[in-house]
Structure formats: structure tokens, C-alpha cells
Amino acid sequence: MAAFAVVTGCEEKIVSETPPEITLDAAEITIPGAGGQCEFVYSIDNPVADGKLTADSEDGWMTDFTVASDTLVTFVAEPNESGVSRSGLITLKYTYGADGEVTADVKVSQGVAGAAPEIELGAAPSIPAEGGDFELTYEIVNPTADGKISAASDADWLTLNADNPGVIAITAAANTGVERSAEINVVYEYGDGRIEAAAEVTQAAAGQASGYEYDMKCFDGIYYGQTYGNNGEYNYYTWISDIGFDADGYQMPGGTYYLFDIYVAAPPEDADNPLPPAGTYNLGSGPGMTEDMTFSYDYSKGVSIAEDGTYVFQAYFNEGTLTIEYEDSNIIMDAVLTDEDGIIHHVTYEGPVSYDNEGGDEPGPSTGSTLEQDLNIEAGTALASYVADDGYVMEVSLQFTDMEVDMEGYVVPPGSIMTVDMFMPFKDNGELNPGTYDVAATYEDYTVYPGELYYDILPMGTYVSYYPDANTEQLGFVVSGAMEISGSALGGYTVTCDFTTDNGYTIECSYSGNLEIQGIPGPYSTLEGDYTLDLEGASGGATYYGDYYYTGGANWMISLNPLSGPDGFTTEIVAESTSFEEGIPTGTYEAGASVTILYPGEYMTGFMDGGYLFGTNYVGGFTSDGYVTEFAPAISGDLNITNKNDGTYIISFSFVDDLGNTWEGEWEGEMQLEDGSGSYYAPKRSSVSILRNSSFNTVDKKEVMENLPIKAVKLQPDNRTVRKSVSAR
User: Fold this and answer.
1) Is the entire prediction scored with pTM above 0.85?
2) If you write DSSP's letter for every residue of 632-654 in order, what string do you get?
3) 685 lies in a domain?
4) Quick one: 226 and 196 in the same domain?
5) Contact predicate 645/674, CB 8 Å
6) Are residues 379 and 489 in the same domain?
7) What are residue 386's DSSP bridge partners?
8) What pLDDT is stored for residue 594 in this prediction?
9) Strands 602-603 and 587-591
10) Which residues of the chain fall short of a pLDDT of 50?
């Protein structure tokens, strides 16, 4: 018994093999701006018998530190009357034995004396279908000593707990149905005051993954050379997938595919075996951008197809990196991507690599001026022709010549034709906008597009054709300079150009006189008064294109085709719901502000392009071949759609056309729905339809240019092409 007592007495002085540690209930605390008595909680793990805790701060506005108990420290804070919040640091020190010591810091934030409390919520968590435990963080700015926090929600699938300072603990039940959302209300009560803040949490639908991870086995790539780079970058069109493509190059059911549309400024090291260099590539900065060491925002995407041919997902990305390395003859690709729904995609591939080399099949624009002298053109004839517009900016082709023009519109050499591709604020009255137009390849108003040559045949943009004689043509492609327009349609215009070509020659051009833009589209309605459509017996059909415009809704093309009656109707809308299975949702749709983009709740107004009708139109006067001879666009008015949830719909409308006539109608019947949102062709690059989503860089100028009154001595070739858009979204 005596021996036992001696051993026990010694053990009380032995330091634990595991050193003590200070644990804080919160490493950062917020105290009232009014100051006063404050406190925080701590604990000591693995304490020793002679251990002692002290607290202190170098910040003079915190004093009188007291270790009130084994778990509580109190101190006094001065009022913060500086007008701005401030922060400080409290250091806890636990000493033990002869020289043992551990420390911990507590960060203190103090609001402003007299300022009202505020709630600052952190980001709401994204909850997967399986549910689980999550956190919503918060901070009380300018708290009070008596303030209390609480949280509540009407959703029975959420359980909330606000016991821990700075955190709302969330427990979510598993979701067995469709995607669902709920609002969490955070309340701070103090004295006679009360403030609230709300956060919305969303839980994925049953079976919907919160993230995707794939180790791909198949590689397909096409090297396009400099065809698509805006500034001459080299393009590697790169697919990786799990099962590859079928014999015709199409994606297959059960497959998952990722496309990286890669751009590099440097040419490939081996022209016979082009490969993108090793390194890290970032997602392009925006639509149409093809910067060095990027994969394009427009084309890069992920697609996963179920065995029944439906889509598991079709994803474009808002963030992402792609890392490429090489080992022997294999490429190692590792991509981390965030799609537009915030879902993370981690995709890898390691294996053989080769690119089909199509870099020379479609040459991009080049400049190779053959002009051999400076030119000073004093034009006696000038013409202006409409090319395209987006409702805000209009593209106009100007031509100036100092040569005589004969009765058939041909010029008589020697002399020059100066062609200027200009962009100006839209006007529909044929007048030019005075101002300075700088040479820039931006398609913005008050710019002149530089000159370029396609297929070594077709001059486009801004260039001069100089004819020293009837058998010789020298071309000068403009790369810099400016054009000045002054005057008005009433008194005439004065146009002066001061350009420089790619081979360093100067082109000066001047013109004074009348100049009116020809060919601006005008009203095309054939109605001579108000009209009610006869849609008796018409058949209904609609095609679904998903979130085609990336505005958060579903794009539908709807048509009512006459079977027995005389009239038909076409429209394009974007609905709130993005579900194909639920059909076209009930709603009232208003005229969209643009014909290049639509938002939920809008229909596209009617317009004509190249002899085709687009958007919302009345169509009638059908010929035996199915062509229409009577039509009218919808410029304003409402479109009402009622989904009866049995496959039938009621469609009614009252529109105003471009001549001020009202045309209206109503139809009820079965609607045949078709899903047109998929069917990507791969691995080849898809072309962009200039009919569904037109823009300046996809306008075919062939017809416009061939019908200009000023004609060169030699016939222009027929195999013209256009600048090709990189935008696919």
C-alpha cells in the first residue's frame, strides 16, 4: 500500500505523452459595437495538473481578461466610435511544467457603435438527391449583447439547427421526385428589434448526379490549322469518349462524349503529325474568343446519351481547365469543368493520339496585296448597299470609283474602285451616320472591317481594286486607318478615307455628293387591312430545341399548317419550363426585343431574310407547290397558349404587322411534338445556320455583291465563301 501511494504521487507530476491543446468553440467571434463585457468559450485537451491558461491582446481596446472558469474567458471591449468596423486578436497561452507552452488565437470583429445589426449570409449549399448534412454560414454585423439567432423553413424535408454560432446546420431528406427548392429564413432578434435574411437551397431530382467523373477510352481529333482562329491561332478539334462514334461519325446510345475546341498561337512542331502542346488550357473568355492556350466557350461541351437515345445531360461550361501531357506516344488529358448548372465534370483520358489533318481544306482569310503604289482616288460615283443588321448595328457596303461608268454599269479603266465594309448605328431611312469610322475587326458601330482574301479569289471587307489598264487588276487590302463622313442626306455627304494596306501603301479616297443606302428591308406584309385567320382544320406541330438561346428557358418552333382552310401560322417562342415531356407550357408570350436572342415568355417577331420567313408570321395564299403568296409579320401583340395536358392545345393571338394592320386568330387541336434538341454530328465541326441565328460574321454577301451597280471589268467568280462563325451556343 505504501509503494502504491508513492507511485501515485509521482504520476501526478508527469506530463501526458500527448501534449495539451487549446480548442476554441469559435476561432472568430463578433462583438457589439457598443463594447462592454464580452466572453468566449474554450477547452483544453490533454490537460496537466499544473497547467495554467492566460489571455491577452495587443489591441488596446480590449482589456481586463479573466479566465472565469475552466471553459470561459471574459474581457471588456471599448465602444467602437470610429465609424467603421474593426478587428483585433486575442492570444490564449497555456503553460505547464518547467517550460511547456501552447497558444491559440481568437480573431475579434467589432461593429460600429450605434449601428443597426445586419445579417450576411454565405452561399447556399447545393444539395444532391440523396440528401445529407450541410451548412449555411452567416455573420452578424454590429451584433448586440442580447441578440439571438434562429432559422426556419416551410419545407418538411429540411431540418435546421442554429445552436452553433455562425452556422445554420441543415439536414436534408432524400429526394425521390423532381428537383425541388426551399427558402431558409434566418432571423436575428435583439431588444425590440428583429431583422431577417433568406437563402434558397435546391435539391437535385432523384437520380440526378451532383457531379460527373469519367475515365475515357476513345480519342478522335481533327486539326483545322488556322481556319477558325480569330488571330491566326491553330485549332485542334478534340473529342474524348467512352465508346467512340459509329461508322458514320455519330454519337451512340449509351455513350458519353466531351469536346474540347482547342486554340494555340504557336504552329505545331511537326506539321505532318500536329499535336497541341503540353500545358494547361483555360476555358475561353467568352463567345467567339479563340485566345492562345484556351478551349472555346462556344463549342466545348459534354454530352451523355442513355441507352434509349434520350439525353442524360447536354452541358456547356462556364469554368474549366484542361491539362495536357505526353508520355511516349500517348497523350494524358485531365479536365475539371463546371457547367452552367454548377455541376462539376472531372474527365480524363490516357492513350494514343492522332489528329486528322484538315488544316488546308478550308483556308481562312489572308491578305496578300498586289498593289504596287499609293493611290489618291477622287471618286465621281458612289453607292451604298445594305448588307445586314441585328436591330442595333447595320452593315453597309460602300463603293467609290474615279472611273467612268457605262450604260450597263461597267467601269471603264484606268482607275480604281474603293470598297468599304462599314458598320453604323441602325437606320431604316437610308441615311448615313456622320462620324469617324476606324478600321477594326469587331463588327461594332463606327468601324470599318479590314480587307481579306478567301481561297485566293474572293476579296472581302475593305479593299481597293486598281485597274492600270483593262487587263490588269491590283488589289490592296486595308489593315489600318479611318474613314470620315460628314454632311447630311439633305445637303449631301463628304466622305474621306485615309487607309493603309498590308504591304504599306497608302490609299486616300474622297467623295462629295448624294449617297443613300439601297436595299434596306422594309415592310413585307401583304395585308391591306385587319384580318382574322381561318385556321379551321389546320394541323399543329412543334419542335423542341432545349435552351437554344441559353437564357434559361426552352425554345419551341410552332406551326399551324392548313389542311382544309386557307391560312397558316408560324411562331418561335421561349417558354419558362425546359421540359420536353411536359410539352409547351401554358402562358402569354410577348414580343421579344431582338431577333437574335429570346428570353422566357417571349416570341420572336416576324422578319424576312433571303426570301425566307422567320419568327412569327401569318402565311396564306398557298400555291400547289406549297409556297405562300400572302404573309404578314407579328411586330407586337400577345400570343396565348393553353396546354390542356391531354395532347391538345388552344392557341390564340392578336398581332400588329409592319403596316399597322391587326391580324388575329384562334385554334384548338392536337399538337405533334418533336424533340430536336439533340442529334449532334460528331466528331466533325458543325456549321452554324445563318437562318436561325444570324450575325454579321455569318452573312453571305454573294448576292449583295453580285448585284452592286458598279461592276469590275472581269466577272467575279461564282465560288464565293463567307467568314465562318465560331459561335455555336
Assistant:
1) no
2) EE--EEEEEEEE-SSSEEEEEEE
3) no
4) no
5) no
6) yes
7) 396
8) 78
9) parallel
10) 1-16, 361-366, 679-729
Q: Name the pairing type of β-strands 568-575 and 554-561.
A: antiparallel
**List of E strands, 97-233:** 100-110, 118-121, 126-127, 132-141, 148-152, 158-161, 167-172, 180-190, 193-203, 211-216, 218-225
All cell numbers assigned to 207: 437520380
**Residue 649 within any structural domain of the chain:** yes
Containing 356, the helix (H) or strand (E) segment is strand 356-357
**Are both 394 and 451 inside the same structural domain?**
yes
Torsion of CA 123, 164, 196, 175, to 10 degrees: 60
Q: Where are the beta strands (DSSP E) in 583-689?
A: 587-591, 602-603, 607-609, 612-614, 617-620, 630-633, 636-643, 648-656, 662-675
Q: List alpha helices for 242-389, DSSP H.
A: none
pLDDT, tens digit, 9 for 90 and up, residues 58-74:
999 999 999 988 889 99
Which range marks the domain in which residue 51 is found? 13-110
With beta carbons less than 8 A apart as the criterion, state whether 226 and 181 touch: no
Angle, vertex CA 449, rays to CA 448 and CA 455, nearest 5: 155
Q: Is 24 exposed, middle or buried (CB count within 10 Å of its CB: 0-12, 13-18, 19+)? A: middle
Residue 114, all three cell numbers: 450605434
Q: Is residue 713 part of a domain?
A: no
Residue 343 sits in the same domain as residue 224: yes
Provide the pLDDT for residue 590.
95
Instruction: Please give the angle made by the CA atoms of 711, 714 and 717, to the nearest 5 degrees.
Output: 95
